[in-house]
Amino acid sequence: MKLYNIREFANLLGVSLSTLRNWDREGRLVPLRTPTGKRRYTEEMLHRALGLKRDRNPPGKVVLYARVSSAGQKPDLENQVAYLKEFAAGRGLVVDEILTDVGSALNYKRKNFLRLCGLVTRGEVKTVVVAHKDRLVRFGFEFFEQLFTRFGCELVVANRAEEGSPGRELAEDLISIVQHFAAKLYGQRTYKARKLSKTVREALKDAADGEAEKPAAQRKEVGEGS
After folding, report:
1. CA-to-CA distance for 142 and 41, rounded, in angstroms?
2. Which of 67, 58, 163, 159 is nearest to 114 (CA)?
3. Given the DSSP bridges, would you call strands 125-130 and 97-102 parallel, antiparallel or unpaired?
4. Whole-angstrom Cα distance, residue 100 to residue 81?
5. Can you tell me the distance from the alpha carbon of 164 to that of 167, in angstroms, rounded to the nearest whole number?
6. What's the CA gap between 37 and 150, in Å, rounded?
7. Up-side HSE of residue 120: CA atoms within 13 Å toward CB?
8. What's the confidence (pLDDT) of residue 57?
9. pLDDT below 70 — which residues of the chain?
10. Can you name the CATH fold of 6-56?
11. CATH label, 64-157, candidates 3.40.50.1390, 3.30.70.250, 3.20.190.10, 3.40.50.2300
């Protein structure tokens, strides 16, 4: 069973040490005690404490999160934010904060992605709105959806009918995955690793060029048959 000391627990909740001591004295959240009298907190106490914190700060934020993969897509980022604002207004949501990132969906160290996760796990957010699932993460969206729910936050996808990024971004993410595993397999700077990445890049380019050269009617027939 995972146990937290008082400082670790306070950091997880985003509250002060004195707040936890007050909750202990008031009987609202009584921790375990070590033989030497030190406070220790469990995971179950963490969920109870988040409930106490929400009672103290009931409303919670509505946060919009938008992302593009490169600096050249800044106009797309602005359009994405405008779309999210319009969607939120249509739902009667009052937006408290807008967070944006420029970076791959495979990068889980994006500055504002980490900030968003911190806000959620401290119980400060009631609703997060994204345009598509892959604006948040490329893989594992359902995990984050469940995680946010555990902290009392609803993760809303504005457009579920048109999931998926543009082909170019998907291709770049695929190349990133290949480069990562090629480096693990052959070493970061070896000829084999570079050759494999180059082969995949060229194959994706050829596939995209071939698709672009198809007559529109033929592309439509293929789409209808899939």
Report:
1. 28
2. 67
3. unpaired
4. 8
5. 9
6. 31
7. 25
8. 56
9. 1, 52-59, 160-198, 200-226
10. Multidrug-efflux Transporter Regulator; Chain: A; Domain 2 (1.10.1660)
11. 3.40.50.1390
Write 26-32 long-range contacts (CB < 8 A, 24+).
28/52, 31/6, 32/3
Beta bridge partners of 65: 99
Length of the chain: 226
For the chain, domain boundaries: 6-56, 64-157, 167-216
In angstroms, rounded to a whole number, what is the distance separating the alpha carbons of residues 132 and 167? Answer: 15
Active site residues: 69
Both structure tokens of 69: 């993969």
- Tokens standing for residue 2: 């995972």
Domains 6-56 and 167-216 share a fold: no
Dump the DSSP string for 59-77: S-EEEEEEEESSGGGHHHH
Structure tokens at 67: 């992302």
- CATH number among 1.10.287.2170, 3.40.50.300, 3.50.50.60, 1.10.606.20, domain 167-216: 1.10.287.2170
Four-residue CA torsion sign, 124, 127, 132, 138: positive
Annotate 2-23 with b (16+ C-beta within 10 A) or e (fewer): eebebeebbebbebeeebbeeb
